[in-house]
Each structure stands twice: as C-alpha cells, then as structure tokens.
Amino acid sequence: MKTLNIASIPGDGVGKEIMPEAIRVLEKVAQVHGGLQFKFEEFPYSCDYYLKHGAMMPEDGMDRLSQFDSVFLGAVGDASKVPDHISLWGLLLKIRQEFQQEINIRPAKLLKGINSKLSNPKDFDIIVVRENSEGEYSSIGGRIFHDDNEIAIQNNVFSKRATKQAMNIAFDLASKRKGLVTSATKSNGIFHAMPFWDEIFDEIASKHPNIKSESKHIDALAAYFITHPHELDVVVGSNLFGDILSDVGAAIMGSIGIAPSANLNLNGKYPSMFEPVHGSAPDIVGKGIANPIGQIWTAKMLLEFNGEANIAEHLLKVIEAVTADGFMTPDLGGKYKMTEVTDEIIKRLDK
Fold first, then answer.
1. Please, which residues bridge with residue 230 across strands?
2. In what residue span(s) does the Isopropylmalate dehydrogenase-like domain sit (predicted)?
3. Rounded to whole angstroms, how far apart are CA atoms 160 and 327?
4. CB atoms within 10 A of CB 131
5. What pLDDT is recorded for position 115?
6. pLDDT at res. 102
C-alpha cells in the first residue's frame, strides 16, 4: 500500500471551505483505485495565525512541513487583517523559496460545459511554465530618502541555471503535447535581463530541432492569450511574466476559481506544494458558493507529480464530465453549491 503524507494548509477565507472538499475527493480516489492511501495533517498557518502569534507560521514551521511528501495549500491572504506583502512573504513565498520550488506549472484548459469569457474561444489547452524562485520576485533592493525625494530600487535576479531549468522543462512538456514552446520576453525594453533570457531560450531551442519555438513580447503575448489561445501549447516565462500570463489563462477558462497550480521541487530534498490560483475571496466566505474545482484540479496535479498519472487523468475526466453536465457554482453561471459540485464528482468517481 502506497502512502502519501500530505501537509494541508487551508489558509484564509474560502481556503478553509474548499480544502475539506478536495480532501474528500482524494480520499474517494484512494478508495476507488486501491493501493493508495493518504495521511493528512492540517496546519493552521494563516492571517488569523499571524494576528495571534505575530508570524504566519512558527519558527519550526518549515522543519515540520519538510517531513511530508507534499504541501497542499488552500488560499493565503486577507488584506483587511494583514498586509498582503506580509502574508505572501511570510508563508507562500517562504515555502516556495526555502523548499527550492523552482518551477511553477499552471494549466489553462477550456473544460467542457464552461463558457469562456472569450467570444470565440475554440478549444485551448495551454501549460504555463514559470520560473518560480528568482527573476522579478526578489527582495534585493531598498528605499532611500524621504518625501518627494524618496527612491525605491528593485533588483531582478536571473541565473543561467534556473532559466535553463525552466526552459528544459517547457521543451520536455511540449515533446509530449503539440510540440510548440513560446517564450515570454521583453528584450526591447528590459536592457540586461531579457536579452539574457532570449539567448538562453535560443540555446535550449537549438537542442530540440523537432519542437517549434517562438518568442513573443509579454504585452503582445498577453493579447495573444485573448485572441488566439488555441494556437498556444507550452508557454515559458519568468517569475513575473509567468504569474501574469497564468492569471490571464485562468480568466479565459471561465473563472479563476477553477485554475490549479503546482510549485515543484526537482531535487527531491523538499516537498512540492500544490495550490489553486485563486485568492481567499473573503466576500463569499460562509455562503457555500466557493468553487471547489480549483482545489480539486490541484489535487489532480498532486497525484500526477507523486507518480499517479493514470489516477490523476481519471480525476480530470470526471471533473470535466461534471462541468459538461452543468454541475457548476455561480461564478461559472451555475446554480449549485460548493458541496453539491463535490458530491457529484465523488459520485462519478465510482463509475
């Protein structure tokens, strides 16, 4: 019997509501397929935890999380309680960076039954590969002077090793899909870092002659996500560009509430972390209408990257069958409650 030890962090807002729904689904998956079981331990790290203890997690929090196979996160942040930069750097980015989760994977796929925000979306199936550990999300820099003379300086960090790693993964994924990698750049405006990025992309592309490659400036590529998403396959971007594009991808899927993501540690020293793209949505807390699909699709990615690809694909097919038959929460134009959507997914896992 294979056991996956999972640290669950519901976090803030709707994270506390959708996490139990996804765990119900994973437990049903284990029951249906056999040979697999989950052991979950919940951690209360959140903005509420910060208000009580002055930190997003205790001093030994990372050591405790490091003992698990994966971290399963709900949603982090509530600006009405804690400034976003504190919750982000104190929990989410802390885990990503200290656990060396250098790659972020976010799919953007139009599920059956869901109406995209686009007028003519066709079928699109995109994967955004985001360098997750450096780039524009750096704490290097500072602020000097006061009043109208104040200056803020922010330094970006791009290493050849991390950049090559993200691009190699993008080409590997494309080799199993439609065979196209698109690089997000801005070398016409960012003088040092983006030409460096482009040079490495060209180098990696030259080693994959059977895979098509192209570079698009970030502003044009963001527009392309809206106008021609069906022509994209695998998109690779820096930390900031990948973050922006994957949110655009979530929007054209119909709702950010269904978008999943994976933060991957590739050296095996620390656990990877899996989280939906959406935020804590405090405005709908307690209404029972939070969309559980983002967290459940994220559970699919957790299964996949823990060696259970077949089970993961079965779960995604069930999710899509449920949306195809109209079992959706109000953010997708549906009439069903959060628990009703989960119940339908669980029911169909038996079939």
1. none
2. 5-345
3. 46
4. 29
5. 86
6. 95
Q: Note the pLDDT of residue 228.
A: 94
Per-residue pLDDT tens digits for 96-137:
989 999 999 999 999 999 988 787 777 899 999 999 988 898
> Quick one: pLDDT at residue 142?
93
- 112 falls within a domain: no
| Predicted confidence (pLDDT) per residue in 255-276, tens digit | 889 999 999 999 999 999 999 9
Is residue 68 a part of any domain in this protein? Answer: yes
User: What is residue 47's predicted lDDT score, i.e. its pLDDT?
Assistant: 96
Structure confidence at residue 172 (pLDDT): 97
Amino acid at site 43 = F
The type of residue at 193 is A
**Residue 247 within any structural domain of the chain:** yes
What is the rounded CA–CA span in Å between residue 17 and residue 289? 10
Task: Determine, yes or no, domain membership for 106.
Answer: no
Together in a domain, 245 and 140: yes
**CA–CA dist 214, 171 (Å, integer):** 12
Total residues belonging to the chain? 351
Domain extent, residue 320, equals 1-101+259-351
What pLDDT score does 168 carry?
Answer: 98
Q: pLDDT below 50 — which residues of the chain?
A: none
Q: In the numeric block, which tokens belong to residue 128?
A: 């955004």
